[in-house]
Design a protein that fits this description.
Layout (H helix, E strand, L loop, with lengths): L4 H19 L3 H10 L19 E5 L14 E5 H9 L1 H6 L5
Antiparallel strand pairs: 1-2
Length: 100
Amino acid sequence: MKRGGPLKRSRLVARSTMSRKAKRLSDDLRQQVMARDGWGCQARTLTPDLPCRGRLHVHHRLPRSRGGPDTLNNLVTLCLVHHDHVHGNPVWAKHHGLLL
């Protein structure tokens, strides 16, 4: 058996899991955003040819990786389909205010 193989791998998994948990929005803030948005996807009227499906996500308009805060002004509710669409079409999303 190689030195550090399985142990090293499990440490990496634990580290990545911890970092994801540290970045997760609070349930209270998530509920506030969804309630403000009427418990519905905010992109549903922007793409009539792309129907809403999947569970609701809270999306950062200015991504955390670019310094986006976890505030009501920076968060919007999107369904799974539109969340993927926003990240796959950044020019379209910027035009509609879903990305900054």
